[in-house]
Design a protein that fits this description.
By secondary structure, the chain is mostly helical. Helices cover 86% and strands 0% of the residues. It is built from 18 helices and no strands. Helix 6 runs antiparallel to helix 17 and helix 12 packs antiparallel against helix 13.
């Protein structure tokens, strides 16, 4: 009976963590979803409009590393509650103050506030759920970004059609605090440990949670972590770069309406929901994180070629289809790096710390994608951006292939 009750509580806790991170996307992605309207409203270039996103990603990336290392010392309940409230306040400042020069500063604060969430949530799940629940947790948490982004882009498309982009920021300012209050009130009951409950059923053993295996195993894991950190930069350069700029690409290259461009961009995060499931299936087949990512990037490279071809024949249908498939594959990569890998390392390393550090490297790519890709587009056009995407995808495929080849030789010699 106690075990059944614990399982039910862990399910509700996982649902609460899912709700918190999904809702945080309202405060995080709405700027990117409305960037073409923001450019038009404030009469700014791609590069200048991308500064706010760059500030966000910079603060978020640094914050992920800092909070990943320090999250063991945090009171998770109040850290996440505070982060959500600060994000809501930053969102409210955008339409209320209405000064474009101040938006990058609001988004800098927003980025650091939200950076506490992922490492704290992954740490909480890793320490609370039993080992056999890690796959389920990685699948569920891997859908948060995609679902949250779908909600943001769909609401932004509606607002673009009937009102202004300001409504997206008001929506975040209202809904995010509501979720923060739900979190604050529900947390104690869902994390309470029943008297007499076996420690290994509820909580990851504290002495071994941060221990790494010794000798060659620890060195091999360090190499994998370093490679995943490098791949994380590439993943988010492609993933956030495409999601941020696809509305502008569709609007400029195919003369589509702003609301229709945003609506079509929904295809990208929507297919990423299934990308998370695919990432788990692929890892079960390969049993190798680096190989999985190499295969995913190889597929992404092929579809980036499809995007270039779609521009040459002026087919927005083919363009959005290829972008959606790139988003599916890069979303799978992102889930592998930030969710599946940290949770599968339960008992070997501090999952919260690894999640924070790897997510921090993801946002190095995101930082480059916002200002950097906007600048490339301003000077050389969107075609140059896609050639850059192609070069990055090929480079990751080659690096992963070389690693797998050398690793295979080493194992054979053993």
């Amino acid at each position: 009976m106690g075990r059944k009750k614990a399982w039910g509580r862990s399910t509700w806790l996982l649902a609460l963590c899912w709700l918190v991170y999904t809702a945080s996307l309202l405060g995080k992605v709405n700027y990117a979803a409305n960037i073409s309207q923001i450019e038009e409203f404030f009469k700014v270039s791609h590069a200048r409009a991308g500064v706010a996103s760059t500030c966000y990603f910079f603060a978020y990336g640094i914050g992920q590393v800092v909070n990943g290392v320090c999250c063991k010392r945090y009171n998770v309940r109040y850290a996440i509650f505070g982060g959500l409230l600060v994000s809501a306040a930053a969102n409210l400042c955008v339409p209320v103050i209405g000064n474009f020069e101040l938006i990058p500063y609001f988004w800098l604060v927003n980025g650091f506030a939200l950076s506490m969430l992922w490492p704290c949530l992954i740490r909480l799940l890793s320490e609370t759920l039993p080992k056999q629940e890690m796959v389920r947790a990685s699948v569920v948490m891997g859908t948060t970004t995609a679902v949250g982004t779908v909600l943001v882009y769909s609401s932004s498309a509606l607002f673009a059609a009937v009102t202004t982009f300001h409504a997206a920021f008001y929506l975040a300012a209202i809904l995010v605090p509501v979720v923060a209050i739900v979190w604050l009130l529900a947390y104690p009951a869902l994390t309470r440990k029943d008297e007499g409950q076996p420690a290994e059923e509820e909580v990851a053993p504290a002495p071994t949670q941060t221990q790494q295996t010794g000798g060659k195993a620890s060195k091999e894991m360090l190499v994998v972590i370093c490679l995943l950190a490098l791949f994380a930069i590439a993943v988010n350069l492609l993933m956030d770069g495409s999601r941020t700029w696809v509305p502008s690409i569709l609007k400029e290259n195919f003369a589509l309406d702003a609301s229709f461009s945003i609506l079509l961009t929904l295809c990208l995060p929507l297919v990423s929901i299934f990308g998370n499931f695919f990432a788990n299936v692929l890892y079960k087949k390969t049993k190798n994180f680096v190989m999985s990512i190499g295969l995913l990037f190889f597929g992404a490279a092929l579809f980036i070629v499809g995007v270039l071809f779609s521009l040459s024949i002026s087919s927005f249908v083919l363009c959005i289809a290829c972008f959606a498939l790139v988003s599916f594959l890069t979303g799978s990569c992102n889930s592998t790096i930030t969710s599946i890998f940290p949770l599968q390392m339960k008992g070997k390393v501090n999952s919260g710390m690894i999640a924070g550090v790897l997510n921090g490297f993801c946002y190095v790519g995101s930082t480059i994608s916002s200002y950097g890709l906007g600048l490339v587009a301003d000077f050389w056009g969107w075609e140059a951006v896609f050639y850059l995407f192609l070069a990055v995808a090929i480079a990751v495929t080659v690096i992963a292939g070389v690693y797998c080849f050398i690793n295979g030789l080493i194992k054979k010699r053993k």
